[in-house]
Amino acid sequence: MKRKQIFLVLVVLLCAGFLFATGTKEAAQATTGTQIGTAANPVKVTYLCKDVDPITDAQQLGILEKAIEEGMAKEGNYVDLVILSAPTGSYATVVPIAFRTAQIKADLIYFQGNDQPIAQEGLLEDLVPYVEKSKNIKAIMPDHTKAAMANYPYLMWLAPARVQIPVMRSDWFAKLKSSKPLLENPTVDNYYALFKEIKDSGLAKWAVTTDGGILKLDSVFNHAFGVTATIVKQNGTWVYSEITPASKNKLAFYAKLFKEGLLDNEYVTKKWDTMEQAFYEGEAGFVSGTAGDVVNVYNNKMKETQGVELVVLPPAKGVSQAYQSIDVTKESRGFAMNSDSKVKDAAWAVLEYMAGPEGRKL
Q1: CB neighbours of residue 180 within 10 Å
Q2: CA angle 73, 99, 332 (to 5 degrees)
Q3: Do the two domains 3-160+331-361 and 164-312 of this chain adopt the same fold?
Q4: 287 contacts 167 by C-beta, under 8 angstroms
């Protein structure tokens, strides 16, 4: 299979929330209780996904659609899966607008943000009743997804929690005198000493870089400063953590890193690609990436370009110690169902099939 074909298949599966192999438990065969469609009259289910164009990629997507349809037919459910074209522009911005104005009338929609106002207008279906009746999806749904859906039942993203973890070149880490104290006791002060030595030794122009914001830094330092949740108790009252002294102290630490040239002074304008380039080329010594797939990419790329592997560093220790807390107020991205869909059971059957043993084999 050509590289583009492989990429497109992965994109479709990822966008549909089909990262269903999040556990080792084998899900039960999907059954709906009521047959969906017939061989002669399959139910049409429309689906909108990011980074997939059914016009330019018609051949590859046709292969995938056929595989899903044939697999579902073996289970007695007959659908005609149709992947729609997304409007031109920033997906997260244009899709909610197009959906609200009925420019898009998909049964299943992948959202990458800006879905909450639509849900508040009653345009998205509550998925909890479908989950409760499911077998495959319920069997592999991680706890953080269950919690998120209990708070916001309109979006489902069956994937491991996206936790950012810090990494740096193993050869550089081995050279630094501050590395051993950091591993033994990863306090904020010891992290500062590591960053200072990276800069002062000339290993890198910037000790730390990131991609336009501070979320990747927060994954390392939030708990150390006492920012352990979105809403925290302060003097007997629940308050937003961003207005607490703990958060202010954390930001003061970031400001210190910036002022001393330890934090990339150009980080605000960096995107993910320029951040990674600075890391691979040795301009920056320390970044954070999503545990699992992204960090694996970083490690493989560093081995290819520099011949060295990466070392994963611990979260900073202070008031508490942990990588970032998982936000379960709602999923930030995921799959939704159109509340006006006339084929809701068929649309859900597609997701249920893809969560099952045969669907995951695709």
Answers
A1: 12
A2: 85
A3: yes
A4: yes
For domain 3-160+331-361, the CATH architecture is 3-Layer(aba) Sandwich (3.40)
**3-class SS at 339?**
coil
| 164-312 maps to CATH 3.30.700.20 | no
Long-range CB contacts (< 8 A, 24+ apart) of 249-256?
249/225, 250/218, 250/221, 250/222, 250/225, 253/188, 253/192, 253/221, 253/225, 254/214, 254/217, 256/192
Map tokens 């954070």 to a residue.
Answer: 288
Q: What confidence tens digit (pLDDT) does each residue in 297-318 have? A: 999 999 999 999 999 999 999 9
What pLDDT score was predicted for residue 13?
45
Q: How far apart are the first and last CA of the chain?
A: 14
Q: Which amino acid is at 272?
A: W
**Strand blocks (E) in 226-317:** 231-234, 237-240, 284-290, 310-312
Residue 65 three-state SS? helix
Position 306: which residue type? Q
Where are the alpha helices (H) located in 101-175, listed in sequence order?
Answer: 116-120, 128-133, 136-140, 143-151, 170-175
Structural element, H or E, at residue 9: helix 3-15
The pTM of this model reads: 0.68
Neighbouring CB atoms inside 10 A of 335's CB total 24
> Domains of the chain: which residue ranges?
3-160+331-361, 164-312
Q: CB 41: neighbour CB atoms within 10 A?
A: 9
